[in-house]
Amino acid sequence: MAEAERIIGTPDSPDAAGAEPEQTDRGAVPGERSDTDGARDPGERSGSGAGSPGEGAAAGASDEAAGRQPGSPRGRRRIAVLFTVAALAYALDLISKMIVVAKLEHHEPIEIVGDWLRFEAIRNAGAAFGFGEAFTIIFTVIAAAVIVVIARLARKLYSLPWAIALGLLLGGALGNLTDRIFRSPGVFEGAVVDFIAPKHFAVFNLADSAIVCGGILIVLLSFRGLDPDGTVHKD
Hints:
The N and C termini lie far apart (97 Å). Helix 7 packs antiparallel against helix 8. The chain is built from nine helices and three strands; from the N terminus they run ααααααββααβα. The protein is globular. A three-stranded antiparallel beta sheet has the order 1-2-3. It is mainly alpha-helical.
């Protein structure tokens, strides 16, 4: 009997209890899980692989929202466009006025297209196109307020067309405000230099043109439902 127990082994012995798990481990192929783990593998791989449509939409919305965060690359590019357009409009207006004052003021007008278009230097104390000459200071304050509003709006700007439109407004406002501050008869009362004189129309300058073009573009963008932050709404 003792010889039979030695050959067969008893279930209560520690060696016999540890033999089965050890054989299971040796039978498993390296790099693969056991059958119990493998039954869960397809579900785990499915969950960690392709995401659901809702998760993809949420990720896209998250990326779009991140693009509108202050200081994002997209926002910085739009701000750069705004100030580039403003600087260009301002520089063209300033240079043209310097040439007009130096070469055309106190001289005969220059005809460009017969009587239909000519260059004529005129000092304008009013608003754009010569309106409201009695309210020079008020127009100066309005121009300064427009510049402040545009500068504050630039932080939430993510639309390229709006960047161009606001850049035109900013450059034009800066051009005429420079005349109001630095030209005679005095600070904040200076007369704006106008020189573009179409037939049967008021005399204006490049700053006025930039303001009008920017305003028209803003009206068109508003009709299309495009907001400065890049979103589109429909009434």
